[in-house]
Amino acid sequence: MTDSTSGDTAWALTAAITQLRRSLRSSVREEFAWESLPMAQVEFLQRLDREPGLRIGDLARKHRMAVNTVSTLVNQMLKAGLVTRETVPEDKRAVMVVLTDEGRERLRAWTQANERRISAALAGLTADQRAAIDAAVPALGALAERLDQPA
């Protein structure tokens, strides 16, 4: 693949991902009028569900955000009842961010709404298009993991 072709593919992929995220975000908000979670908070809920017991510094590093920005978002999530702060058992001076039942429920509802939207959209595609997406999902997951690695 030439650099020009690679650049074209990268740009097309970026544009498709951006459009998918925007479409999913707006369609979920249509289904859940109460839903007011910023995408960064949704991503934190997803991360805390996958990796329980992270500290604010861990979240900042993993999301490549400033610690004070993450602290502000976590404080908003605390006020909304989505997370709590708990003492780290092996270091009583440190605190970790933990999902609450409400946080887990909001994440579950958000995930199910997205799954419904995606399933409905996939049903409108041809069998070949669905097969191409099925085949691409593992590679997209590997790409996401690679992008998460430090440069």
From TrEMBL:
Keywords of this entry: DNA-binding, Transcription, Transcription regulation
Entry superkingdom: Bacteria
Entry keyword DNA-binding: yes
SUPFAM superfamilies assigned to the protein according to its UniProt record, in alphabetical order: Winged helix' DNA-binding domain
Alphabetized Gene3D superfamilies for the sequence: Winged helix-like DNA-binding domain superfamily/Winged helix DNA-binding domain (1.10.10.10)
Start and end residues of each HTH marR-type domain: 10-149
InterPro entries on file: HTH-type_Bedaq_tolerance, HTH_MarR-typ, Tscrpt_reg_MarR-type_CS, WH-like_DNA-bd_sf, WH_DNA-bd_sf
Name of protein: MarR family transcriptional regulator
